[in-house]
Amino acid sequence: MELMSEPNKHPTGVLTGTEPGLGPHLRALLRLFVVLGVVGGLFAVWRWNGDTRRPGRPEANVAALVKRQHGLVVESRSVQIPTGLPSASTGVFGYRDVFFLGRKGADAPRDVYWLSVRFTPAGVPLASRALVNLSRTPAIDEPTLLASGPYLAFVIPAGQQLGAVVVVDTRGDPPRDLAAKKPLRRLTNNLTNLQESGHWRGFSRHGLEPRKPVRKITLTWEAPGRLSVTARSGAQTLVATLDCRSSKLLRGATWLVHQPPMKGEKPLFNWLVDTVRRMPGVGPKKIEWMQVALYTMVDLFRRRARKVSKGASESVSEGGDTDAVAMAHDLHRPRAGSVKASNWPPEPLKPLLAKPPPNEGKWFAPPRSLIKMNPGAPVPVLETFIHPDPRRPFSAVGVLIWDPRQVELGFVAGTREPESSTGLRGWGRIPRDGNLGRVIAAFNGGFQTMHGEWGMKARGRLIREPMKWAATVATDRSGRLLFGTWERGDKKVPPELVSFRQNLAPLIEDDVVNPLKNQYWGLAVRSQRERIYIVRSGICFTKEGYGAYLWGKALSLETLTTAMKIARCQYGMQLDINRTNASLEWYRMVPRSKVTRDPPRRMKRGGRKSWGLVPGTKDWVFYAQSWLPGMYTRPFPRFIRRDWRDFFYLSLRQVLPGPSLRPVAPTPLKGEGAWSVSGLPQGKAPFPPRIATTFIRPDAGRPEAVVQLVKLDPRRLAYRATVASGSTPVVVRAVATLMFGAYSPPGLVVRGKTLVAPNPRVPALLVERGPAEDDAPRARLGTPASTPKDHLQLLVIGGGALGAAAPPAPASASSAVASAMASAPVSPGAASGPRRASGLGVDPSGMICYAVTAAGQNAGRLLSRALSMAGCAKGVRLPDRPGRGPLVLGPVNGRIRLLRGDGATPVVSGHVVGISWTKYAYSKRLLVGVAQRPQRVQFSISRKEQRRLYRQRMQRDKGAVTPR
Fold first, then answer.
1. Beta-bridge mates of residue 764
2. CA–CA separation, 731 vs 584, rounded Å?
3. Quick check: bond before 746 cis, omega within 30?
4. Are 744 and 880 in contact (CB under 8 A)?
5. Cα pseudo-dihedral 461, 465, 466, 467, rounded to 10
6. Confidence check: pLDDT of 819 > 60
């Protein structure tokens, strides 16, 4: 009998025997696959709801996907997939660009978004990434968009009119710009693109802004990368074409301004700080506290190194040997022969130290090689230094003041900062126009938008809407310098404000420090006890009405405010801080034709002095110098390039008397071509002069032909019309008088009252004032019908062609003038004397030019040449008349004679226009709306940055949804 053998035991304890077949394994795997399929299906149902999984409806699927993942309300009809759906299933890299209009709430404005989505051939989204807001206009509703391949175009409205047309190229930065960058700069640029858009390549942006009000915009893609724009302006149809590939406006340059893609290059240190700040888990608050710790240690080291004693008296005694600021030029002394300006220079500043360094608080004049000056005028800018902190004698503040009567403040918005809320981007550089040669200096602007959503407007372009209660510096249509607190509750900007910049709350207002009791001056400074001593800058409005820029090292808010009080500031605001952000640079721009040496091919990037060809031009050369030792000069010069942040610049106004004319006669006469203000009535404020005269002989072949020239500043003049009846008219505050008599021009309007009806199509001299009561008058040449409806015509003088052989005929006298002439006594000199030919023009600075010469066959040609030499390319000719000509300077008793043979002023009967002086302020306090001020105003970082930090914190904790 055969015994059954027991199974062998494996050493590990597992029974071994006959191996099972393949069937049980397959059944086990099948059960596992079934379980995984069920779990996967349940997960898909949980992960993708029905709204996002509808085949054949990709637009509705995208709208539902964006709603669920990002909380945006999207209309499916606005979703555009320009490249279409894939024909087969795509891999992990098969993402398609999707564009749509989304809003954060049912009533919120729409923005233009870009999202990358991976689709199935049926239009079902499988995954999405990199949601980018392309418009970022929280207060403006974009009505439409039009996509074509990698290009997207949309319209940003401005009320009922066109604000701008934006074209986005999702292929990335222009290849030409990338090729010009060094490898390290290309890497930093791509990393920034990845942070901002989720794409390594990023995107580029074109802007089209209208030069005139237009309506009914139509966009059409003629070809890939070629956009056609059609608009209506009144009854006129305007057409433009933009070629995105070549970045050129092929047509339509007469009514559209093209803004090509431009970013502006960040300094490497600034890029590193901003990149780390935007990393998850970092944020601006930690960066600020790192700076607090660093600068506190630096301040302690400086104080120990200087051996500053604890007692104030001992520290004051060491103030004399400080090396804080050393001015490398002499004290200011008025130049001989220049017109004296009232209250200029101002009184020296009173030092705070008991034993101050030599010349502290005394005004210095920059060397002539640094700045451009008006001929015959005093120095437009002055500088000095002060020590606001007795405990830190090494902490000094440089103070630069400018006279608004000669200097105008310009505003430049950076290509990245401030971040736009209206769709309009900054140009990032000083305008390359005819006033480039008048630039004096440039200095830094305010904080970035992430540190506060303060508004800015530059040259009529609103970049970011204003914030209530923010400190504001501005300029209006008249070029005035304005300082004040924005007290309007709405976001509307008064039309008379051409430019403004806001930053934080006011530091000082009417001798009150921190009048709004604001506690936010940066994330690291929450109270007065938390003082951080760093490089700070500020701008203020002095009690004399001058503008001032302050810069210093090792300053706190308290010491910066003390410096403003020493500088006699009645209103002050803080600008940017930190050594890499705050600086001032002198500039001198000259035509290349006046430079004997060839400028260097590459701009110098270090040091304190540099020169070269102005970027973006071929005809201008710049000379630059850093203002004070210790200012950050990498890269240098900064403001002549295209900058990514906003900044200010100072430019010289054109004031009388002006540069001398170059005589063309072989032997010039004494004083020929030199403008003079001596003996002329200028009013109670003689600077800048209201009137200046000279004479010139414009024809070298006729040295006996003399043309007398007069220039008048229309901003500081008033006009009043009378009808003379045989007696000498009396003009109050007389500067000049236009005594037409029976030889009235073919058009005369004074302060809106028509004396002689002008032909609407006849050229005329126009002096107009804007709708605001304090708008400065402006002079120009044009037709009487071209005056805007909301402007007042202060003076309209019609005439004929300037170079015509025959002068225009005098206008027929009105009934009032005819009766006055009939009843006037006959005067022997009223119609006697040589006949005079005269003409009027306007130079590029807006000054009225008057020319008079002896009447004759070539009188028109002489007047045209003389006015052209005075800067007036065009003009109008007045009727010839006997005597001295219609314009009489000063009192009408004939004290001032224009030409040889002129006698006393004849008694006239007819139209007389009195020109008198009036007050005009070049600077004043800003009043944009008086409101009840709160007891306290608390600013903070921007709402965008708050949402970003909140989103990071929630994702780090429990993945909560970000509030919208």
1. 782, 798
2. 48
3. no
4. no
5. -160
6. no
For residue 842 the two structure tokens come to 């306007």
Cβ count near 118 (within 10 Å): 19
Contact 540, 568 (CB under 8 A): no
3-state secondary structure of 790: coil
User: Is residue 930's pLDDT more than 50?
Assistant: yes
C-alpha distance from residue 569 to each of 483, 566, 840 (Å):
11, 8, 43
Mean pLDDT of the chain: 81
Q: What is the mean pLDDT of residues 552-570?
A: 91
Strand order in the sheet with 456-458: 461-464, 456-458, 497-502, 471-476, 481-485, 923-925
Token pair in block for residue 940: 């903070």
Q: How many CA atoms lie within 13 A of 273 on its CB side?
A: 16
| Signed CA dihedral, 578, 579, 584, 588: sign only | negative
Q: What is the DSSP string of 395-440?
A: --EEEEEE-TTTEEEEEE--SSSSPPSSS-----S---STTGGGEE
Q: How confident is the model at residue 812 (pLDDT cuts 50, 70, 90)?
A: low
Question: What is the dihedral angle through the alpha carbons of 136, 139, 141, 146, rounded to the nearest 10 degrees?
Answer: -20
Backbone angles phi, psi at 45, to 5 degrees: -65, -40
For residues 444 and 189, the model is more confident at: 444
Q: Quick check: pTM over 0.90?
A: no
CA distance 638 to 25: 74
First-residue to last-residue Cα distance in the chain: 89
In the numeric block, which tokens belong to residue 733? 């505050």
Quick one: pLDDT at residue 492? 83
Characterize the bridge pairing of strands 923-925 and 481-485: parallel
The region, left, alpha or beta by phi > 0 then psi within -120 to 50, assigned to residue 371 is beta
Cβ neighbours for 538, distance < 8 A, ≥ 6 positions apart: 507, 549, 550, 560, 563, 564, 572, 573, 574, 575
Tokens standing for residue 148: 């074509």
Q: In the numeric block, which tokens belong to residue 930?
A: 């008086």
Cβ–Cβ < 8 Å for 833, 901: yes
